[in-house]
Amino acid sequence: MPHKVCVATPFALASALLLQAGAARASGALEITGAPTSANGLNARALARGPEAAFFNPALLPFAPATTQAGFFVLVTRGDITLAPRPPGVDVPESVYDGQIRNPDGSTSRLTHRPLPGSKLPSPRDDTRDRQINSYATLGFVRPLYEDRLVLGFYALLPLRSFQEQRAFFADERAQYFSNRLEFELLGDRLSVTSLAVSMAGRITRWLSVGAGVDVTIGTSARTAVHVPDASDQRTALINPDVEVESVFAPYFAFATSPAPWLRLSATLHLASASDTDGENRIRFWNTTYPEGETSVPQAYRLTLGHQPTRVGVGASVMGPPSEDRGGERAARSKSPAPPVWEIGAHALLTRWSEYRDRHAETPPDPWSSTVSVGLGGAVVLGSRRVSADVAFTPSPVPDQTGRTNYVDNARLAASASFETPVSLFGADFGVGAFLHGQLLVPREVSKSPSARNPVFDEVPDNLVDIVSGEPLDGVEGLQTNNPGYPGFSSGGWLAGAGFVLRLPE
Question: Which UniProt keywords apply (predicted)?
Answer without folding.
Answer: Signal
